[in-house]
Amino acid sequence: MDHIQFPDSPLEVPNFLGGAWQPGSGPVHEIRSPWTGMAIGKLYSSNASDVAAAVEAAKGPAKAWGELSLKDRTAVMFRFRDELLARMEPIAHSVSSESGKLLAESKAGLMKGIEVLEFALSLQNLDDGGKMIVSSGVTCEYRREPLGIVAGITPFNFPAMVPMWMIPLAITVGNAFVWKPSDKTPMTSLLIAEAAKAAGLPDGVLSIVQGGREAVEAICDHPDIKAVAFVGSTPVARSVYVRATSNGKRALCLGGAKNHIILMPDADPEMAASGILASFTGCAGQRCMASSVVIGVGDVDDIVAEMAQRAASMELGRDMGAIITTESLSKLRMAVQQAGTDGAEILADGRSSRPKQSEFESGNWIGPSILDHVKPGSQAACDELFGPVLSIVRLKNLSEALALENTSPYGNAASVFTSSGAVAEEVAKHAHAGMIGVNIGVPVPREPFSFGGFSESRFGHGDITGMDGVAFWSRQKKVTQKWSLQKDQNWMN
Ligand code: NAD
User: Fold this and answer.
1) Is residue 318 part of a domain?
2) In a domain, 485, yes or no
3) Is the residue at 451 inside a domain?
4) How much distance in Å is there from the Cα of 256 to the middle of ligand 1?
């Protein structure tokens, strides 16, 4: 295992305004590493005056940047990609040390973010606007315009990837972007800002305001911020959506999830066992795409037994990372306890698991836990626990399985493991989720296919990446022109 490099002493985490570092004026919070429990950062949180200062510093740059051609902006974004790749190691160490991820997971997250950046780079060739002769001598065309100053609020679990769902698209189409990173994992934002500066992104085009609720509410209320994207838990996604839209802004707010995998008895046992295990233990289950409910249809006992055996042999710190906070850890332990009380059979119990290395003994650890015969409607079947806990509900047939999946108020992802194309099609058609997997436990679409769920997993219209993301961060002007000397009447007159 590669060793994560933790900061020697707590790093100061200031705001990034107009290309300069400046501490926020709100209270200071300690950032502790989920791996060790040690303080690794000091966050200066922001209030409304800091958000106003960020917007002020972005005004001039937003105008100048928005007036550049798409090709000129893209040239800077190409360098941004190079600067991020050059910083792959420090970014991965930062992500891991503050979020609890394994190093390989941190690198994979950054690469997924860079995939969105690469899609943004392709816009100079793809986004040709479109022009038609719509009547004799009359043309009509689309012109894409930036909105001005826009903002993004990101969660703890992907400190580099989720911001990269937003920043490349918003900036490439010509906006200035104000980023409010998670107050639990703010440190990686410093490295991303450094990469942007080294790439030659003009000062003020990317600003960072650190902090929590106060900074978020100030972003939603600021009249010069035209659009707000949010990724985080459902209750906060809903409240940010309501506050931003009631202030006349565009908003797209992605929320939490409770993703289901339908496990059919004809599934390939190896594909199913490894796919399901990776889905609920990857990033220690702290992914909005993690599947936390398996609906076992018919006799899937062998696959379940195989998963339980593999889960029990996973080593913490090597095969799975840590949980973000001590509060989240206690919630997970209590949920396993409650599932037992509610009648579930605890097939794998990670509550007393610890990593082998003594340096991690004060970290936030729970091993993979598998709960079988979980009752539909119970806490383990319905609530987003956001940890490595898998609930298995047993049902008789596919219709019952789809009916249960459809009761979830969320709608991020749903998967099926089967060797039948007809069953796969049935699930793709009837599962209530924005992202469907067939024999894939984490069905994250690859760009240019966009990312986004349904219902309580997403407030607002459209997905956050792909062409939907481009549309969210821009507006289209329709220009209709007549330059021919033709004087006859047509429907355009
Ligand atoms: P969170 O909702 O606690 O925090 C998200 C952001 O909102 C952070 O920047 C935080 O500082 C801020 N915030 C927290 N409380 C706030 C409040 N009361 N008012 C205003 N702002 C507030 O989420 P989290 O714990 O950081 O992230 C985990 C959640 O995010 C899970 O529910 C997970 O499913 C979800 N998530 C969803 C997606 C998706 O694409 N749908 C992706 C990643 C994470």
Assistant:
1) yes
2) no
3) no
4) 8
Beta bridge partners of 420: none
Instruction: Give me the pLDDT at residue 189, please.
Output: 98
Q: Is the pLDDT assigned to residue 416 strictly greater than 90?
A: yes
Q: Which candidate in 220, 253, 283, 288 is catalytic?
A: 288
d(CA 110, CA 84): 9
What residue ranges line ligand 1, CB within 6 angstroms?
153-158, 162, 180, 182-183, 212-213, 216, 231-233, 236, 254-257, 288, 384, 386, 412, 453, 457
Same domain, 97 and 221: yes
Other C-beta atoms within 10 Å of 353: how many?
18
Q: Do 145 and 281 have their domain in common?
A: no
The pTM is what? 0.97
CA 470/CA 307 separation, integer angstroms? 41
Let me know whether 154 and 172 are in one domain. yes
Cα–Cα distance for residue pair 146/477, rounded to 1 Å: 11
Spacing, Cα 236 to ligand 1 middle (Å): 7
Does 298 fall in a domain? yes
pLDDT digits (tens, 9 = 90+) for 50-109: 999 999 999 999 999 999 999 999 999 999 999 999 999 999 999 999 999 999 999 999
State whether the Cα torsion 93-94-96-97 is positive or negative. Answer: positive
In this structure, the dihedral spanned by the alpha carbons of residues 434, 439, 441 and 446, taken in order and rounded to 10 degrees, is: -60
Atom nearest to 233 CA in ligand 1: 32
Query: Which residue's CA lies nearest to atom 12 of ligand 1?
Result: 212
Does one domain contain both 115 and 242? yes
DSSP H/E element including 55: helix 48-67
Which residue range(s) make up the domain with 47?
11-255+457-477
Q: Could you give the CA distance from residue 116 to residue 16 in angstroms, rounded to a whole number?
A: 23
DSSP code for 316: B
Torsions phi, psi for 430 (to 5 deg): -105, -10
327: exposed, middle or buried (Cβ count in 10 Å: 0-12, 13-18, 19+): exposed
Question: Helices marked H in 127-198 — which ranges?
Answer: 161-172, 188-198
Strand-by-strand arrangement of the 15-17 sheet = 20-22, 15-17, 206-208, 176-180, 149-153, 225-231, 250-254, 458-459
- How many separate domains does the chain show? 2
Nearest atom, ligand 1, residue 452 CA: 40
Ligand 1 atom index nearest CA of 464: 40
Reported as a single tens digit per residue, the pLDDT across 109-123 is 999 999 999 999 999
Helix (H) / strand (E) containing 435: strand 435-438
288 annotated active-site:
yes
Start-to-end C-alpha separation, the chain: 72
